[in-house]
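Record type: ASSEMBLY
Status: queued
Input:
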Amino acid sequence: MTKNRALIWPAIIIGIALLALAVLYWVDSADALPSFIPGHEAGSGHHHIKHGIAAFVVAAACFIFAWFQTGPSSQGELT
Amino acid sequence: MVFAALITYFQAIVLGLLQGFSELFPISSLGHSVILPGLLGWDIHQNDNFFLAFLVATHLATALVLLGFFWSDWVRIVRGLVRSIRIREVRPDDTDAKLGWMLVVGTIPAGVIGLLLEHPLRHLFASATSASLFLMVNGFLLYGAERLRRRAPGPDQSVPDPDARIARRLNWRAALGVGTAQSLALVPGISRSGSTMGGGLLAGLSNEDAARYSFLLATPIIGAAAVLKVPVLFGHDGDGVRGQALVAAICSAVTAYIAVRFLMRYFHSNTLMPFAVYCGLAGVTCSAYFLAT
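Status: finished
Output:
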């Protein structure tokens, strides 16, 4: 993994979007989700808790990735 | 209420022993938990809510055994992760940090795929017949992994530390691939440990290192899946099976411990071939039986 500072902000933005998506999954029922979001189901009161956890985990991964990209770009980087 | 009829203590003991044993052997615990009740004529199906609650306990027990068995390794790995976060880089000489992040990289896709697809796949492949057919496929996968490993570069035996060998041999892409291969185990009949051991072999690990990496990779995913479902065990679906689940968890812990001890020694000098043969033969035999009955 080589460090690329140009990826820091995209990773943070994607992370924030996924975090918002996670909250949406936890708060809204399947019926209330926007129709373009996976899991939308008209007339369903089910909350997609697991979808929310999945979105949260990937968001966390994005933030961690961004954090490592901010580190010193030493020659010791692993390939 | 006829909770006593849901699952007997005898069934709990058999299924617990089987779970701990088959979770770590590359022969698919989920497949066996579907096939065995079918063979014995037990009225237990993997999509029954009480059975899911029951399985939570056995999975949790297996994860705790793995965590305990590799406890000192996990302490080192977590320290490595914290160290790398603090300095914002993974130093090439920091084996624990690299191994830790490879486990994270491998766990995330498997976890996400599991969260999203576990339910539909469980319902799609719920029958004992499909589990038997996939057990046969699992046998072919194990056989293929052993055959194809010859093309991969061999392990560096000059490095005495197995974690260092793994960290040196696997790159991030391979770690991602090996971890994602765990998702195949969402299909009853395909083994999680078999998939990851096979992936490790293809990436150039020895049988011993592939088994070690597979068990390390298993701990967070089995543990997280079990913890996520603990509320099911203590909820309404767990009514009438908690005692049996506790007994099964103890049985599962015992066989899981024996299995991990045995396999770490076994793979020091042996291969996946016996498991490939077993899965192939058992898959063919059970498929024929279920299709005929």
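Annotation: DSSP finds two helices and no strands in chain A.
Annotation: Residues 1 and 79 of chain A are 5 Å apart (CA to CA).
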